[in-house]
Amino acid sequence: MADMADLHTDEYHEPPEVVVSAPGIITLMGEYADLCDGYVLTGALDRHVSISISRRKDNSLRFFAADTGERKRTTIPNLKYRREDRWANYMKGVLYEIYRRNYEFKGLNITVSGNIPQKVGLKSSTALCVATALAVKKLLGLEIADNQLIQAIYFAETSFLQSKARLVDIMSMLYAKAGNLMLFDLHTLAYSHVFFRPGNASLYITNSNIPPFPIREDIVYREEETLGGFETLKDQQQGMFRELSDQDIKTLTSSLPEERKRFCLHVLEESKRVLESVRALEQQDYHAFGRTMNRSQESLRDKFEVSCPEIDWLTKRAVELPGCCGSKMIGEGFGGCTITMLEENSLVHYKERLGDYEHIFGFHPECFEFYPSSGTGT
């Protein structure tokens, strides 16, 4: 990315007072584990959204997207969602949530730039909200507690923008440590850092570059059916569903209609896979970790049914390679990215497979190494 101070100065003829960046986030395991208050494993990317900001003397709010050269503007009294403002709505939502919590401010000049691939499950929009919130907090010296800041970011996405957001993504952006993944208990939101030292293997994210298409209704359907299944079963179960043994999961869900059964099985088994994958990482057994990745992908494809032919091809061809520990989809599904663990000497052969993918499907894949980065801190 270009230097944010230079971009801001060129646009507003004054240097920024604050520059803040927030990383993208991946969910390695447990994408839908919130449906059973289960566990999720996340990691921060070394790709970021950056915000530079300076104060104005009036009530005008100016937004400049340096990557596209687009500009938007509004005023503090008119902090409302407008469809045509697109990317600026995320920053407006954060400003609205901070303002309505009685933290007053005047006009602002804001520049945004980023290198997180968008709409592929790497949480670029949440990163934009987090970077905006931290920049405003730092600029104005706001005495706002972390939990209040997290709530402001969360409601900016879910209430102001009417889009889906996860507290664990926000928390991962704030609290990630370089060289560590993060294990979350979704019942309590307690988290711990999981040291990641891959030895002679590395993780690679591959963006399938499948053109984005509306999937929200399909996702909502699966979520509602899963919750409906758990509601049906709750009188038969003492304690939390996530604590069931493998056999108890199969026994309990056997009475459900077939589709609900598959959805519930995936969610419950995936939550258990998160803990299994963490144990493998703690023992530095990356082949065991890869096997949990493979089982996760099989379940996402066959039980939760959110994979697609392109993702199936990428993961299947990856695991055929000697030196590939495992490969799976990341994100909500129906496209997006895969994550693959490869030994060093397998990378060149994997990239040859990506050439085959482009020839077969017509989409140019982008591959980059993932190593857990640090969060923004507060």
Describe the protein's architecture and organization.
With 378 residues, this protein is an alpha+beta fold. The chain folds into 2 domains: 4-194, Ribosomal Protein S5, domain 2, CATH 3.30.230; 197-370, GHMP kinase, C-terminal domain (Alpha-Beta Plaits, 2-Layer Sandwich), CATH 3.30.70. It is 41% helix and 23% strand. The chain has 11 helices and 11 strands. The strands form 2 sheets. Strands 1, 2, 3, 4, 5, 6 and 7 form a 7-stranded mixed sheet that branches. α8 (258-282) packs antiparallel against α9 (286-302). The longest helix has 25 residues, at 258-282. The chain starts with a helix and ends in an 8-residue tail after the last strand.
| CATH third-level topology of the largest domain | Ribosomal Protein S5, domain 2
Mean pLDDT: 94
Please state the CA-atom Rg, rounded to the nearest Å: 22 Å
User: What characteristic shape results from the CA principal axes?
Assistant: globular
Number of domains: 2
- The portion of residues forming beta strands comes to 15-25%
Amino-to-carboxy terminus distance: 23 Å
Q: List low-confidence stretches.
A: none
The CATH class name of the largest domain reads Alpha Beta
